[in-house]
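User: What would this chain look like folded?
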Amino acid sequence: MKHWLLAVAIFASVPALATGPAKPVKSTGDQDQIKSIVETFRTTVINKDKDNFLKLFFNENTPWIGVTSEKGLKLLKDRKKDASQPDPEKIYSQDNPAKFMDGLIASPGHFEEKFSNVRVDTDGNVGLVYFDYSFSVNGYKVNFGKESWHVVHTVDGWKISSVIWSMDFNPEPPKTK
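Assistant: Here's the prediction, encoded as C-alpha cells.
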C-alpha cells in the first residue's frame, strides 16, 4: 500500500515538473525603453547624429552583419557598371555603427530607415528586437528586409549589442530627373 501511495504522489507531481520553472514576467517598462531605442536609431539616421547614434550601442565593435538575398545578389550583379569590380558578397560585415554613420555623414543625401511590425522580447536583462525595415535615400527605397538586434541592460540603460539584417533591393531603379 505504501508503494501505491508513493507512486500516486510521484505521478501527481509530474505535470507540475513538466511545465518547468515559472517564466519571468516581461516588463512593459523595459519593452517601452527598448522600443524608444528603435525610434532614437531612426531619428539619428535622419539627422546624421553620430554622437547620439553611437550612444545606442554596447561598444564600438558591435557586430553589424547584413545578408543579401539570392534575388538581391542577382540584381546587384546585373546593375554592376564595371566588369572589373568584384561581385557583391552575400554576407556584408565590413561596417560597424561608426563606419555606417560616417558613410551617411559623408554623403549629401537624405537617409531614412523605417521600421514596422516591431516586436520586443526581454527578461529585463537581455532582449531581442525584431522588425521589418526599409532604407531610403532621397525618398527612394534602396533596400528592405528583416532586422534583428540583441540588446543588453547595462548600468547606462539598454544598449544594442548586435545588429543583423536581411537585404533585398528595390527592383525599380531610382527615377532620374
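The chain has a mean pLDDT of 86. If you want, I can go into more detail on any region.
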